Amino acid sequence: LHFEKPILFFYIFVKTLKQNTMFEQLTQLVKQFGNDAVVNNPAVPNENNEAVLEEANASIIDSLKGMVANGNISDLAGLFEGNNAADGSNPAVKQITDKLTGSLGEKFGLSSDAASGVAGSLIPKILGSLIGKAKDPNDSSFNISDIIGSLTGGDTQANGGIMDAISKYGGQFGLDQNADGKVDISDAVSA
Asked: Measured between alpha carbons, how far is residue 53 from residues 47, 49, 75, 86 in Å?
């Protein structure tokens, strides 16, 4: 392969690597919290455990990307407010939980109660941990800019819209990592 613009290739390579790393870390969170909600749940047949966890992972990624694509930035930014990401009544959490509930019933034949129980137990814990890690300055496993970049595919206009919404709400919730009085991309880098 010959690349006329090696820097562009390197940039794309690094962006793809960061996205894959973020998705792999999300998969680890799904497995971590899936033990009780899925594996040890008699309502989920053992032969479906892995597929149900994969469906949970896909539901989270697809829903978050859908929020970005549809301009639903305020719900996405709302995940970063306080401890809302672990709250089942948060609009974004509810949307993802409902998506997974429907998928589990449709694809795996789980009853409405069983599917709702799995999704309601799993999604708030995963999102709470994901956002908690992204906001924790002592935890470098996730950071806000990587999450946003993964969801927008590097679309700088979408990144800006999300960062504007986070900036609007985030100063109140400890996201001003560099103490400059505003929440912006430099705070994500400082984290």
From this structure: 12, 6, 24, 18
pLDDT in tens, the chain (191 residues): 444 444 444 444 444 445 556 678 888 999 999 998 999 999 999 999 999 999 999 999 888 888 877 877 777 777 776 667 788 888 889 999 999 999 999 999 999 999 999 999 999 999 988 888 877 778 777 665 566 566 655 554 544 454 555 555 455 445 555 666 665 555 544 54
